[in-house]
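testing teh design pipeline on a random one, pls ignore if ur not involved
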């Protein structure tokens, strides 16, 4: 769909996952917006508390150091969230190789096949009756 609400005619090119890209970009934009909002709070609060501390309010000196720490923590979390978002996208975009020589997996699949076969035979007997 484009900006005015309809899709152009014709098939979509193969290999392009528009919905996934839009969802990923939306998540990244939200992470960026969170950082901007946090910094928009922390920077003026730091300046305000610095002016109060210079003006003689002793308690404001604690806040002078607290607001930059909170702003730094916001940057730290921003980087962590972006890294996890990118890692999540990389995991979904690149299919994992399945190990074919897993004896536990083969045993489990054989068990499931046996259960499925016995369940099918029970259902067919019930239908006959």
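output:
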């Amino acid at each position: 769909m484009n900006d005015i609400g309809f899709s152009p005619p014709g098939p979509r090119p193969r290999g392009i996952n528009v919905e996934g890209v839009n969802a990923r970009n939306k998540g990244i934009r939200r992470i960026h917006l969170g950082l901007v909002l946090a910094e928009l709070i922390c920077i003026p609060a730091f300046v305000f508390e610095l002016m109060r501390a210079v003006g003689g309010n002793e308690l404001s000196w604690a806040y002078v150091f607290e607001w930059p720490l909170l702003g730094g923590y916001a940057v730290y979390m921003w980087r962590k969230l972006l890294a996890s978002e990118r890692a999540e996208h990389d995991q979904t975009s690149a299919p994992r190789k399945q190990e074919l020589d897993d004896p536990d997996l083969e045993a489990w699949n054989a068990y499931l096949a046996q259960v499925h076969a016995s369940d099918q035979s029970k259902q067919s007997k019930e239908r006959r009756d």
